[in-house]
Amino acid sequence: MYLYNRIYFPPEWYPQSGIQLTWPHEETDWADMLEEVTECYVALSKEILKREKLLVVCRKKEQVTRYFTKMEQRRLITAEIESNDTWARDHGGISVFIRNNPAILDFEFNAWGLKFPANYDNQITPKLYFNGFFDGEVSQFNHFHFILEGGSIENDGKGTLLTTSACLLAPNRNQPMTQQDIEVKLKQTLGIERVLWLHHGYLAGDDTDNHIDTLARFCNEETIAYVQCTDETDEHFEELQRMEEQLRTFTTWQGKPYTLVPLPMADPVYHDGRRLPATYANFLIINGAVLMPAYGTPADDRAKRQLQRIFPEREVIAIDCRALIKQHGSLHCIAMQFPEGFL
To answer: Is the pLDDT of residue 3 over 80?
Structure first.
């Protein structure tokens, strides 16, 4: 275990106490398709509840609990807190251990560079902490005047952070900070020792300025799964090829080349004539399983087989995310994990 300033940032595959979701309601962008997207949330929630706790931020707990059995509700925690939208990966707190003690880091969220309102979303994590929704052992809450979304960073648990320059250096995030300034801030707050910057790769329809969790993901400290495009006629081909080339230049914390595992490019998904950022990289690792987004196309099966090869010890479960992708996000984007000892 690395210790930079005695901070340990656990990876997503670290044993978990639970997952946070922020539930859709009639004042979110889901208003005109609330029933459809709620079906997705319920399906996802039931898989989580089989394996760990689920913390749901919602307007009214009855809007959530009615979908679950009494047995399922034993692991369900509801927090009645107002929200602008439902992207918990980006407005959720980030979990670290400081001197072996669980701590919540609360970075500022400004809806991907002031693209949308975020006044309520930005208050969720402090309200969860100061209203006792975390375990009593979580004795530290650190707020930083620094814009950082959970979907913009990938962590190997060994001191390495993977991110994209398009996002962390984007306008309306942390200007006038330079790349070097941002690296220093990430090291100070997350305890990491190095940052790998991807300068290529994007998905059409993405609102986040190229979040890393749509493009390339750590699966363990030696393996990166990434979106591969093999169709030369696809608009993504050149940029994703360049991303793949750059990934090959990266080495692990031990100085070895990463094991790179390609995920298929999702078959094109359109809504109102616009291509959506469908991606299989947006999977969620939970205790004993990997939940993967599915879009109702033949590529779903290929992606599931590939993820099962990457995670042979976990069950890979497809969740229909055709509703989620209509708002330009997917499965990982709506969920934030908490390690053991946090819920």
So the answer is: no
Nearest alpha carbon to residue 123 among 85, 164, 163, 81: 81
Q: Hey, what amino acid is at 331?
A: L
Copy the structure tokens of residue 38. Answer: 């709620």
- The CATH number of the domain covering residues in 7-339: 3.75.10.10
Are the C-beta atoms of residues 142 and 151 closer than 8 Å to each other? Answer: no
Domain boundaries defined on the chain:
7-339
Per-residue pLDDT tens over the stretch 14-48: 999 999 999 999 999 999 999 999 999 999 999 99
Are 85 and 110 a contacting pair, CB within 8 Å?
no
**127 token code pair:** 């309200």
> Residue 65 to residues 23, 60, 236, 264, 296: CA-CA distances in angstroms?
11, 9, 41, 36, 28
The pLDDT, as a whole number, for residue 136 is: 84
Whether 1 has a pLDDT exceeding 60, the answer reads no
Global pTM?
Answer: 0.97
Q: Is 144 helix (H, G, I), strand (E, B) or coil?
A: strand
Encoding tokens for residue 111?
A: 């809806």
